[in-house]
Amino acid sequence: MSKVALVTGGTRGIGAAISKGLKEAGYTVAANFAGNVEKAEAFKAETGIEVFKFDVGDHEAAEAGIAEIEKKLGPVEVLVNNAGITRDATLHKMTWEQWKEVVDTNLSSMFCMTRPVINGMRERGFGRIINISSINGQKGQMGQANYSAAKAGVIGFTKAIAQENARKGITVNAICPGYIDTDMVAAVPEKVLEGIIAQIPVGRLGKAEEIAAVVAFLASDAAAFMTGSVLTANGGQYIAN
Ligand code: NDP
């Protein structure tokens, strides 16, 4: 029987590429999404991948969503915490709502999603948890105090639970993408984007598939000795370690 992989925010952008990549690698994939039903249904029709709507930042909704997925497909053995949002503003103009929405979706989701699956993984002696952070969690980004803080938090979370679960056959790793060509980046004003591309040594935006390939590797048996690591895929824009 094929392993079940759950990809949050798995119906669009980087998440959609991850879902497709894992399906190609032989996993039974469950793709979660927040509210864009039209996009999710189109994704399901195109790929045959099951889609599940719930808010990853709401722990009760996440618990119920995971219970539904496990009942339908079986225990989650690979969890990709990919769902994320931006609500950009400089701190002196940022609202509490902008702060909270970003921290809930990008960081509290790590708890909400991982907590319900971790005991099952520990009992079975196998698990792969792959968390999508960001270049801006590594280097900080003006206008994104909320997002940079949340994504830096994802790295701390990854390192802590990697240590807690290393003896149980569970690996926990983070990926920090640079700027990838998705709806999230399409929301960046054109002039700003031109400036960003000028700072990327490879001279272009990344592709969602280029992040999906890293996820597929981390999920595989070949990556069993990698845990607590932070992988950078950013076209050389920020060389962190
Ligand atoms: P998109 O905006 O293209 O897609 C976001 C996905 O997340 C959608 O499927 C969306 O669902 C889902 N989502 C958003 N909020 C929630 C929520 N509360 N609960 C459940 N699902 C939710 O994002 P990207 O593909 O660009 O980004 C994916 C991840 O990669 C994010 O964590 C992002 O921060 C990170 N990242 C992206 C970079 C980039 O350049 N694009 C760079 C570095 C990191 P729905 O369709 O229903 O809205």
TrEMBL record:
Uppermost EC category: oxidoreductase
UniProt domain Ketoreductase: residue ranges: 3-178
Gene Ontology molecular functions: acetoacetyl-CoA reductase activity
Catalytic activity, EC: 1.1.1.36
Record keyword rRNA-binding present: no
SMART domains xrefs: PKS_KR
NAD as UniProt keyword: no
Keywords: Oxidoreductase
GO biological process, one term: monocarboxylic acid metabolic process
CDD domains: BKR_SDR_c (cd05333)
GO cellular component, one term: cytoplasm
InterPro entries (UniProt xref): Acetoacetyl-CoA_reductase, KR_dom, NAD(P)-bd_dom_sf, Sc_DH/Rdtase_CS, SDR, SDR_fam
Signal sequence, renumbered to the chain: none
Protein family: Belongs to the short-chain dehydrogenases/reductases (SDR) family.
Protein's UniProt name: Acetoacetyl-CoA reductase
